[in-house]
Each structure stands twice: as structure tokens, then as C-alpha cells.
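Support case: user asked for a sample of complex input and structure output to validate their parser. Sending the pair below.
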Amino acid sequence: MPTITIDNQTFEFEGQHGLLQFCLDNGVDLPHFCYHPAMSAPANCRQCLVEVGMPQRDRATGEISTDEDGNPLIQFMPKLQTSCSMQMADGMVVQTHRSSELVKRAQKDTLEFLLINHPLDCPICDQAGHCPLQNQAYKHGPEGSRFEFEKVHKPKHIDLGPRVVLDGERCINCTRCVRFTREVSKSDQLTIIERGVKNYPMTPPGVEFNEPYSMNVIDICPVGALTSKDHRFKARIWEMSKTASVSTVGAKGSNCYYWVKDNQIMKVTPRTNMDVNEFWLADEERLEYRKFNEDRPDGPTVEGAPVSWELAWKAAADCLSGVDGSRILFLGSAWATVEDNYLLAKMADAVGASAPVYLPHVEEGHGDGWLRTDDRTPNAQGCERLGIHAASAQDLKARLEAGEIDVLYVMEDDPVASGVCSVADLAGIKVVLHHYNTTNQTLQAADVALPAAMAVETVGTFVNVDGHAQRLRPAKAIAGVNRTLSMEIGKCRADRHGTPFDKWYNESNLINCQPGWVALPAVAAALGHEMTYKGPKQIMEEVSASNPAFKGATYSAMGELGVRLESTGVTA
Amino acid sequence: MADFIKHPVVGLPDRKPDPVIPADQLHFSDEEKKQIQTWISRYPTADGAVMRALWLAQEKFGFLPPEVVQLVADELNIPYANAYGVATFYTQYFKEKKGKYVLDVCTCFSCQLCGGFDMLHYLEEKLNVHKGETTEDGIFTVQEAECLGACGSAPMLQITNGTYVHNLTEEKIDALIDALREDRMPAFTSVTLPQDEDELGGNRRSDVEHTEAYQAGPVSETTR
Ligand code: SF4
Ligand code: FES
Ligand code: FES
């Protein structure tokens, strides 16, 4: 097998590899700015320079020349090479900054150049704290600058488009943003204009940077030149906790991080998962987070009056008890997790009702074959696999109008807003509603309203449109004590922000709501049906063991990147 | 145009300019299209031909406002952003309307030492404009240029991306301005090389009508 020696350590490799990527994959932390694994390598930042040599060959025999001890003689290339654009070859010998003074010096000098015209505004820059330029200048850069002249001033706080703001002075012209629009999103809305010290990225005249994936350039920009119009100056990176979870905006289930400060979602950024969203996230997936913070209910209500959770469980159970199962309609939800939908199906079964159905939220033409989908819900596929099928608003409307229904049990959806019925239509019907927001239009008709934890507050599973089962993790705490949630928050966040054990812990903005896997067993218990689980993990174990459509989807198997389920032939 | 060295400020281009070329004139003739296609065929991909096509467009329209860059991009079937990036990279592509004659006075090292700035200032005073500006009658634009590769005949200037005027003196500038006002373009002139004097009469080129003898450069007044 071909081998390569990096800093005197020999690695075997197969196939074609870029040197920089190979180093990064093998724990050699080579500094770099312009290289990005999803795009071409223009080798323009010069930060990734290394010494590269190949074994010397005897011209006549073609044999590798050796020294007296039999070690191959290495001929180094006369100049340092950019590792990002270098393909590996058998026998190659590489010296990085870990073993070469020359490389160390080159990295330092490159940084000095990059910083010549870079403003020293880190104290007010959104990128500070997670800025590759800042980090690398700290690790590999010179102590100070020898540049004593006025820096070049470029346009600042320019709206490149509705969502991305440019600070031209901070740009180091790595061209990642331009290459993103050229090679990845293919919108071709950006270019580098001018040249030399005057250049910076810009839209050509008459063009707005408004493509639906524009905000990805904010993440890949290695400096603070591109920032989010929405998030600018809202929170420093170290004031937020970061939780690996899944987007709720479409059926693709893009992997993301939820950033939380004071129990509020501040921003959403992509999390790499090569089987789902690769490195990217659509703008809509980043911006639809206010629903998690705003218009949230505060505790359960019965007939509009606040009550304790115990009374609320009892009231919900009272609505169901004594009613003929065939006259109860259970509405599951493609917003809710597999676990919660499963419990709802169990409850429906326990009271003798037919299996729940769910309302599809499909917007024809919204999808683009990439990360945005026509389906605007995250878990329709999970519902289908549970045997909870889509029901059209018209069918449900007809059933309600025919007087077939006495009790409508709605989990985490809004039949009124979905056109199933009006509030008036529900006059003679008992309605139990698990809801996320006070803007839920069915709320006015609800006899019992049970605020539900949203995807960022619960533990559970979503199955995406391709059958990829992925775990949700709680990014923000809710009111009250829940051991499962506390443990999950403590486990899944390296920074431990927001757990009662850390100094950032904060009781503001805690929402008085309950996850479905707490609420449904509580209502069932009040009805006299035991559904005892230690938590969603155990529920999912039961689902994956009993339902072949979920084979293998245990929490430990899903981990951070999810599990691709076998195709069932059912499409959501 | 402010002095970039003293005030290093880079401006923002007008991001929503009104078109200046009337829509009915904004197209290439069949012949021009054919020419562009020929250029495209010489490169592996169409963007190779972008510089030639932009040049052709500049000669046709006089300068390259965004709508002309867009026209070129469409003709080549490449992204408008790419063509615009190329157009802004090169100073010889004029992004705004210039005078009929653009005088690029070299003030790079060799010319500077031989009086490049003196020539520039003389021209500025004579035409009553600052560098980067166009005379009121719209005939001349005076610009400062970096090395134009004719250091041997410094100081020098170039007329509208074309003809060079070598070994500049104030008298030569006077004569040049008079000539250009009458639309008499100086002929292409080759400067002889001292090392060729013995054998070739100083001139290696056989295809030129005008030659000018090499002369040792003057020394700039400001350098002295
Ligand atoms: S704005 Fe950022 S991503 Fe774009 S070229 Fe500049 S440094 Fe690179
Ligand atoms: S990462 Fe190699 S030159 Fe920029
Ligand atoms: S310095 Fe003027 S032409 Fe070279």
C-alpha cells in the first residue's frame, strides 16, 4: 500500500487524497483559510504551506537512491507547497510546522500579510471567538505588526442581500463565498471586484445576494467579513450553548446546531452530516427559530383557565373517558417525534379508537431537490412508518360535519389553521390540544390545552424524507424538573451551559410545557391505562424492536449522525 | 479622484445604476457575434474568451457599463458575476465614460525617476483637470498608470489603451494635444535599441514606419 510520511510519522493510504484534507483527517492541525472540502482549491491564502519531498531516483536505473544506512534520499521541492492543492503520492515526505522551522516562519509571515489591512475590531466583531483568522493569528502569527501606516478602508456594513452583511475591510479574499455561489449553490451572485489591496466580494450591479442558501457563506467565511443580518450583535459566541440536533423546517431533517442564550434560541447553524445536508443549511432553516421563543403558552388551561398539570391530565382524561372509541378522532403530527406519535397511537388503541392520522403540510413547488422540500414538516416519514397516515383536511372536515366525532384529540398541530374546521364547527366537540404556540388557532376551541415541548426542548426521533432516522436533543431547558431532559442537556453539550450545574444557568424564559412522552402517559394514567416508560430512549427501543420499519433505530445506533432505515416503499 | 496613497479608501460601486446604453443599441451585430464565437472556439471553455469579448464591447460602446458586461456574459453564456469580476480587475476596461482620448501617464519607477510626475502635472495644468478627471469638452481624460513596459523610453504615456508616446517632454505634450484636438493620432513608433545600433541601425523591427532613436532618460526635477 502507498505510504506517506508526515512529520516523521508514516501513514498508509489508498486512492487519491488531497494532502491538506488527509492531514486534517489524521489529526495534523494544518492552518488554512481558503480550502474547503466541498469546493475547489484555488490555493490563494497561502496559509497551508508545507515542505514536500519525494524519494530521489537514480536516473539510469530508476531505483530509489539510498544513503549508507539504506534510507531513501529525499529530494525536497525548492519552494514550500500549498498542501490544499497537493495530491499525495507514494513515498512522499512532508514536513509541517510541527517539524519545520521554515514552515513555521512561512505561516507567521503569511499571517502578517493577511493582517496588514485587517481591522483590529475583534472586540465588536461577531466572528470573534470562533474566527479562524483570530485563532490562527494567536497560534501561529507574529506578536505584533510592523505595518505602521493607515490601513486600507473598504465599504463596511453593506447589505449584500436581505440576509448577509459585508464588512469589506475584514475580508481576506479567500474567495470561499464566491466559490460557494459558483460551485455549490450555483446562483453566481457573487464575485471578487477590483484587485490588489482594493478587492473584496460584491454582487455585480443590479444583483442582490438573495438566493435561498445565501447564509451559508457566513459560516464558511474564515473571518467576520460576512455576518448574519438577523444575528448581528445579538450574542457573543461564548455566551451561547450549542446543541447538536436536527432542523424542523422541512422533511430533509438537515443537521444543525441550536445556539441558546438565556433559554432562547439565538441562531441555527449547519452541522456536517454527509448523508443528509453535507455542510449546508437553507436560509429558512436558520431563520425560523422565533417560533421556539415567542408566543409560547405558560402552563396548561382547562376551558381557558390556568390549572395545575395534574388537573389538566385529569381533565384531558375526562374528555376521553366514557366515549365510544369510534367517535374519538386522534390527530397525530408530523411536527412531533416518532416517540410521541407512537404513544398517541397506543393511547388511541387503548380507548378503542382507530389509529391516529396526521395532517400533511405540503407546499407544492417549495422544494428544490436540495435541502428545501415541498413537505414543511420534519417527521411525516416517521408517522407513515408508524402506520399513522396522512389525512386530507377535506376528509376530516367531512367527518366532523357528518357528526361522526365527539372528541378531537390533537397532538401538536392546528386543525383550524389547516382548514379542517372553524372554531365554530368545534362547538359541540370536546377538544384536547397539545400545542406549541399561543397563536395556534384551535386553541380557542380547546377544552383542555396542554402546552407541548417543541423540538428544541425534547428528546426524540425524526425520520427524514429519505428514511434517515435522527435524534433530537434538548437545546433549551423548560420549566420544572425533568431528569431525562436535564441528563440529556448535560450529556449532549460540551459546554454544559444551561444545566443547573453551571455558572451560565439562567431561569429566565423557561417555558411551562411538557414533552409528549411526559404528557401522553400522564393522560393515559389518568384514564387508567398504564404506559410506563423510563423515557423516550426506552420508547424508541420498543419501537425499533417491534416495528420492522424502524429496525436498528436505537438511540445508541443513531448517535449524532442518524441511521438510514430500510426503505418500506411508503412515501410520506 | 482622491489620492489612494494618502487616503486609502476603496469606494463601493453603484449597485443599482440606471442603464446608460439605450436598449435598442444594446446588442452585437451578426459579424461581432461571429467574431466572439471564433474566439470562444479557441478555448476549452467559453470564459476563456471573456477578455477579448469585453474588449470588443468596449471598442463598440466606448466603455463597459453593467448592461454591456451583462451583454457580453450572455453572449458567452457565462455568469454575469464572472464577467463583471474580470471587467473590474483590469484598469484598461473603462467602467465609466471617459474622454475621447485617455492619456495614461506612467508614473512607475523608471518613468518617475525620469520625470513622469512632472509630465503628469504639466498635463494636469495644461488641461486644467486632476488625474482621473475628464476635460469639460469631453475630449481628454488624464490618468496615472503603472509601468507600461516602455521604461527604456521613459517618461512615456499611452493614448486610450493604444499608441505609446515616448521620451516625453513638455513640447512633445503640447504638440500631442494640438494633434489630438485635430484628431490626428500619432503613428505607432518603435524605439531603437542602443545595442542594435551597429548592425540593424538600432531597429530590430522591420514592420514599422516610424522609429525614434533611443536616448538616455532625463532626470526628474522632483528627484533632483
Ligand atoms: S468575505 Fe469571507 S469568505 Fe468571502 S472572500 Fe472574504 S474572507 Fe473569504
Ligand atoms: S488553504 Fe491552501 S492556500 Fe489557502
Ligand atoms: S516605469 Fe514607465 S514604462 Fe516602465
